[in-house]
UniProtKB/TrEMBL annotation, chain A:
This is Molybdopterin cofactor-binding domain-containing protein. Coiled coil: none annotated. The lineage of its organism: Bacteria, Pseudomonadati, Bacteroidota, Flavobacteriia, Flavobacteriales. Residues 213-311 form the Aldehyde oxidase/xanthine dehydrogenase a/b hammerhead domain. PANTHER family: ALDEHYDE DEHYDROGENASE, BLL3820 PROTEIN.
From TrEMBL, chain B:
Keywords: 2Fe-2S, Iron, Iron-sulfur, Metal-binding, Oxidoreductase. Pfam families: Fer2 (PF00111), Fer2_2 (PF01799). This is (2Fe-2S)-binding protein. The keyword Transcription regulation does not apply. Residues 2-78 form the 2Fe-2S ferredoxin-type domain. InterPro entries: 2Fe-2S-bd, 2Fe-2S-bd_dom_sf, 2Fe-2S_ferredoxin-like_sf, 2Fe-2S_ferredoxin-type, 2Fe2S_fd_BS, Beta-grasp_dom_sf, Diverse_Oxidoreductases.
Length: 744, 153
């Protein structure tokens, strides 16, 4: 806590602030603007004028007492534009009604980890954002104390009003100009969770009014004076390269400004560093520049291009064969090895081995990929939906041979991300085009472009083998065969690691020319289904209770003895026991068939129970009970939305999501051939949150992976058939009810 | 390029576009009404839903000639103050996640409830089945339609 003696005026800050015109104040952006901001896609901030190293870049306070909080991380629908400012506002101690939220721009000096991915924004923001708010609050108190000539410790704050021992009051707006000149105090004390006024409250999405009235918010909505539209003709198949094109007809079409070829800059980067960005095709591409979106899209269709096959043209059948070959083989990378699984299998009373398989999946963000670029001699202005702005700014600087401080990148609200917008192929295209034509340009993907040049979830197969001796699970061997990459390093330490004496995880991947990448809850989005189906079947062959099998395993885990173990057995047990109680597991009415799962990923513990009923001879997923331990729940209204959406997304993709390739060409290009879950198929999701005071974890991903497993296990209970392949609707006969139920 | 007269949100407008231009792109690129969203371009997702003489239609799959003097309402013109019962219900339930599809959802729901202010559960689900929400906010969409129906019936 600062004391009176610590309060000194910083000459540098004073000079900086006094040079700015206008009223109001700022702890944060060193700019005096109106404090009732509209979300303007057009930037008001000229980075070259900024020098705000001494202050945090998150908070701006007006003389009227109104507060603007800049949300640092990209918003993809996960709710951080609401939840991150809540953390600042809580410790700043202001009324939420007086807070306006704006999206921060990319600012690597003042913000850390401006990334939307891995369900990490709240987890990583929890400490620094609260510290930011608390530090600003202390500076405001110190300013008031100086004016009153009292010690800051004698002052109290509530909702933006500072009160001293004599009962005098000053609003934040009254002292904000003085506060901004003070030195930044250290050793700030944060609130006790029991004193929270904003954290834990149901706070509406900060963009709700704009969303419900159709105001411009998204990248696709962004416009700038003189902007032209670009539609890009890319290789129609993975493995294709452009050799020539005829644009005679396209050039004569209405609204067409120019037709150019791009690719040279990307190819040069590939030559310098082949690993710089593996998600971008190195083929030349043809670009139509037009006055409107429709004109650009139509003219692209009129280009006659010739492509050559310079490498293998891959099909789903090849992948299938390749991955099965890997699982049958012996060449693996061993990712974790406890004990000796081979010995356990040799000595077992019983061994169970099953193989599970899943297809590629496109992300299908509702807002197709797009990006704006305006490259001039002075700067490179980029605007649009991107989950990894800092990574992309660096990439564009390299691509165009510019300094990183010449790149001004603004993030728009995103019409979905799901991992697709981690990758920068569309940003690179926009920058390369604007650099070539020296005009402000927006690259727009059609839905067909979006689905056909994806960065897909890779097809994966898992084979799991377990041994049982004297009624105990003695060995567990998980093998992964995947396209391009394998599971990331933490996953081998997820449950059941630590619970089984002989445990091994092996992986192998096939290098494909089809671009793949992260897809909401990478790897676990399919692994959870495989493992949780396997436990279900293991319990059946062992003739033990399905929940008890999981609890018995968890009770064997000594997480303190093995620091690699990521999950908490105690938290998982609590989640499981709550799910049993809330779902009515084992006491469900006749005709309701349940499937049980528990899972840990993205630092969050989850258990789900699916209820399936038979209607018109077919199984229907009616309800999912979902129990979540994500620590302190920052915004319950937003948290429940993430959980409901994650569960239904998980059900939808495991039921219907199917994608693949034929000679490098995607089998679907639009929603007529690719099925996404819709209203009538969506189960009701009933959520129960575990209450505790542990630091919060994220919710964008962790409820998705268990959903497929819960449905698969409930389908087994309902139909008597176990499904080993996603999507579950791929073989409709597997959804028919068996006359005589079978075990195992 | 031909000139078309169209009535959007109560206002007569004149636009010069080629005859094949979908109404969606006329709204977005020529009239700066970007609330109507592009999702698939083939009438499969519902993100571009508008009202044509009060009926919910897919603006990506119709041209100005097909409108033939009918009047259009977009999300921007659904209410003057953003307080149509469906918009109010959407706020109260806090439906959106990414928010991109929600204008289309609201336009589908408002046209539906205008014709059927006392819907059953099945009728709500049938009416909303054509609109994809990739974030899968379906539970909340359902609740918001139900809530709006209480206000409109």
């Amino acid at each position: 806590m600062s004391t009176k003696s610590n309060i000194t005026f910083s000459r540098r800050a004073f000079m900086r602030t006094s040079s700015l015109a206008g009223g109001g104040m700022l702890i944060g952006f060193n700019l005096l603007q109106s404090c009732k901001p509209e979300v303007k896609l057009e930037p008001e901030i000229d980075l070259s004028q900024l020098d705000y190293k001494d202050f945090n870049a998150f908070i701006k306070i007006a003389e009227t007492g109104e507060v603007t909080i800049f949300s640092p991380n990209p918003e993809i629908g996960q709710g951080v534009k609401t939840a991150m400012p809540m953390l600042i506002a809580e410790e700043l101690d202001v009324a939420w009604e007086n807070v306006y939220v704006e999206q921060g721009i990319l600012d690597t000096e003042n913000y850390t980890r401006q990334v939307a991915g891995g369900s990490q924004s709240i987890r990583h923001g929890w400490e620094p954002l609260r510290q930011t708010g608390a530090t600003a609050k202390q500076m405001l108190i110190n300013a008031a104390a100086t004016r009153w000539g009292v010690d800051p410790s004698e002052c109290m704050v509530s909702e933006g009003v500072i009160t001293n021992a004599a009962g005098e009051t000053l609003g934040y707006g009254d002292v904000v100009n003085e506060a901004a000149l003070l030195e930044v105090p250290e050793d700030i004390k944060l609130k006790d969770p029991k004193d929270y006024k904003i954290i834990g409250q149901n706070i509406q999405n900060v963009d709700i009014d704009k969303i419900t009235t159709g105001k411009p918010l998204f990248g696709l909505d962004y416009k700038k004076e003189g902007m032209v539209y670009a539609s890009v003709l890319r290789p129609p198949a993975f493995g294709h390269k452009l050799i020539s094109y005829d644009d005679t007809e396209a050039k004569s079409m209405p609204g067409v400004i120019d037709i150019i070829k791009i690719g040279e800059k990307v190819q040069k980067l590939f030559e310098e560093d082949p690993s710089f960005e593996s998600k971008i095709s190195s083929s030349d591409k043809v670009v139509v520049i037009a006055e409107s979106t429709w004109q650009a899209m139509k003219a692209k269709e009129a280009i006659k291009a010739e492509w050559e096959n310079d490498i293998l043209m891959e099909s789903t059948a090849n992948h299938d064969q390749m991955l099965t070959g890997f699982l049958d083989g012996t060449q693996f990378d061993t990712r974790r090895k406890d004990g000796d699984v081979k010995k356990a299998f040799a000595e077992a009373d019983m061994v169970l081995e099953r193989t599970y398989e899943s297809p590629f999946l496109p992300h299908n963000c509702m807002e197709p990929m797009n990006f704006f670029a305006d490259v001039t001699d002075e700067k490179v202005h980029l605007v649009g939906p991107i989950q990894t702005p800092a990574w992309k700014a660096g990439l564009i600087a390299k691509l165009l041979g510019r300094e990183e401080d010449e790149i001004l990148l603004e993030m728009t609200r995103m019409g979905g991300g799901f991992g697709r917008r981690l990758y920068g192929d569309f940003v690179v295209e926009a920058a390369e085009i604007s650099d070539a034509i020296r005009k402000p340009v927006k690259v727009i993907y059609s839905r067909e472009d979006d689905m056909a040049v994806g960065v897909y979830r890779p097809a994966i197969k898992y084979r799991i083998k377990a041994s049982v001796k004297d009624g105990q699970i003695t060995g567990y061997h998980l093998k992964e065969a995947a396209i391009n990459d394998n599971m990331y390093g933490l996953i081998p330490n997820f449950f059941p690691a630590g619970a089984i004496e002989n445990y091994q995880v092996d992986t192998k991947s096939y290098k494909s020319n089809i671009t793949t990448g992260a897809w909401r809850a990478p790897y676990t989005n399919f692994l959870a289904y495989a493992e949780q189906s396997f436990f279900d079947e293991l319990a059946e062959v062992m003739e033990v209770d399905k929940v008890q099998l999981r609890l018995d395993l968890l009770k064997k885990v000594d997480a303190d003895a093995d620091e690699r173990i990521e999950y908490s057995p105690e938290r998982m047990i609590k989640v499981i026991e709550t799910a049993v109680e809330k779902s009515g597991w084992g006491t469900q009415p006749k005709g309701v068939y349940q499937g049980f799962v528990n899972y840990y990923c993205h630092n969050t513990h989850v258990s789900e129970v699916a209820d399936v009923v038979i209607e018109n001879d077919s199984p229907v997923v009616k309800k999912i009970t979902c129990v979540v331990d994500c620590g302190i729940v920052v915004n319950p209204l937003g948290a429940l939305n993430q959980i409901e959406g994650g569960v239904i997304d998980g059900v939808g993709h495991s039921m219907y999501g199917d994608f693949g390739f034929n000679e490098g060409i995607p089998i679907a290009h639009n929603f007529d051939r690719y099925r996404l879950i819709r209203m009538k198929e969506a189960p009701k999701v009933e959520v129960h949150l575990i209450q505790n005071e542990l630091a919060p974890t994220g919710l964008g991903e962790p409820t998705l992976p268990p959903a497929g497993g819960a449905v698969a296990n409930a389908l087994k209970a309902a139909t008597g058939r176990r499904i080993y392949q996603q999507p579950f609707t791929k073989n409709p006969e597997l959804l028919k009810v068996l006359e005589e139920p079978v075990i195992g | 390029m031909p000139t078309y007269q169209i009535k959007v949100n109560g206002k007569s407008q004149s636009v010069d576009v080629s005859a094949d231009t979908p109404v969606l792109w006329v709204l977005r690129d020529h009239l700066d009404l970007v609330g109507t969203k592009y999702g698939c371009g083939i009438g499969q997702c519902g993100a571009c839903t508008i009202h044509v003489d009060g009926t919910a239609m897919r603006s990506c799959s119709m041209t100005l000639e097909q409108l033939d003097g009918k009047s259009i309402t977009t999300i921007e013109g659904l209410s003057e103050d953003g307080k149509h019962p469906v918009q109010e219900a959407w706020k109260e339930v806090d439906v959106p996640q990414c928010g991109y599809c929600q204008a289309g959802q609201i336009m589908t729901a408002s046209a539906f409830l205008e014709k059927n202010p006392n819907p059953t559960e099945g009728e709500i689900k049938d009416a909303m089945h054509g609109n994809i929400c990739r974030c899968a906010s379906y539970n909340r969409i359902y609740r918001a339609v139900e809530k709006a129906a209480e206000q409109m019936s």
